[in-house]
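[step 3/7] fold_predict: job queued, chain A
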Amino acid sequence: MGVPIMLVHELIAAAPLDRAAAIPLFRQLYARLKEAILHGRLRPGARLPATRELAQQLQVSRQTVLAAYEQLTAEGYLRGGVGQGTFVDAALPAPSQGDEDLARGAMRPLPERGAALASSMARVRHHHGLLRAFRPSMPGLDLFPFETWRKLEAQQWRRRTLPLGYGAGAGHPELRELLCAYLNASRGVRCTPDQIIVTTGSQQALYLLAQLLLAPGEGVWLESPGYQGAAAPFEVAGARICLVPVDAEGMDVAYAADRFPDAAMVFATPSHQLPLGVTMSLARRLELLRWAEVQRAWIVEDDYDSEYRYTGPPLASLQSLDRAGCVIYVGTFSKVLFPGLRLGYVVAPPALAEALAQAKAVVDRHSPIVPQAVLADFIRQGHFARHIRRTREAYAERRATMLASLDRQLGGMLACGPTDAGLDVCVHLTGPLAEADAVARATAAGVDVRPLSYFTHPQAGPDCAVRPGMLLGFSAFTPAEIRAGVAQLAQAFAA
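[step 4/7] structure written:
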């Protein structure tokens, strides 16, 4: 079965070789011929032109054509030899209509679980573009000692003592020991190093816990409004989402116990609720622990930014009050160091720790070793404690600047919620602007804000309604940038 040389040339001419490209000409020719074979334009058994003839026709060197033919022959697309000619391998299956459908993107539909996995984070807004006021939940990267971190990482490589093979699913042993001591001293967390599992961020921790502990259809209490990224892993696990309103004392435990008494898990942010900023009262904490103990339910305590409290020392964790072994403590370094580090951790009850470590190994074997080792040095040498002290002082100044600026320029249009902890300020609209209008005006003025309605789950009913408002981050911006941002916001609202 012959193929005229002009036909091959026409196939190439449809996507000509680019002599100015960084990709070598032989690789371009190889790609064109491979695509023609896979799509059926060169059929099995078709004869290709001799290398010298094709080289002359394409005005390239013969070595270019030889190299392309050799690569295609090595991969099984062509066969032939000296004096025999070169052919598309006759053993290749001829393209069918199904192949054409595949080429057009047809595929088997995703199963229900796959569709949930692919879509569950669609409503979660991720940071993108240049940092601008007032992007929420961002640490002050201008305050991080990157030079110190760089030196510690360089020392790790120079020492050549890093375990560069596969490690334990639970994480770097030294980091787990240091974390154990830190959490005990700063958060009152009662644990041993064996109870700590290092994860690739707190999001992975929630995914692992959902997959490990929840059967399809089992209920999970979720705060509403609340962190939308938390709902995704529970939805993927097939859990029944049980939305619980939040008031001035935190999650309404009595409401949830009355309406969802058979839930298997609770996700809560008792130290600093996102986005409202409230702290769960002691009475609510004890009520929640008693309910979980009786129901034999798990409580996942997300303690995402508890290091930053401005009206006194950080509050003790919910886990420190647990006597039944039902609280699973989840933390992250994204808020105290930098989000790109992608390191978090779980403090699991003793009976759960080994199973969780094994589940972690299924997902990604273990989190990257080098960042864990550098972080261990960062903590052990005192840099971590100094960084938290420094950022707490800086954030306190930035918070004060934010509150004073908002009161001075927008006091008649915004009312601030609780501001004694965290990296953000929750503000409620008190003037004539609707939330959507206020957010649109802020965005047009170049101010990055997050509407409070964003934090309401799509399934939320009237019991979980949130007052119109916005979440404004202050931690990533200098006092001068905060004053300028508030001025932009005031000008946009007054227009």
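[step 5/7] annotate
Residues 382 and 402 are 30 Å apart (CA to CA).
The chain has a mean pLDDT of 91.
exit 0
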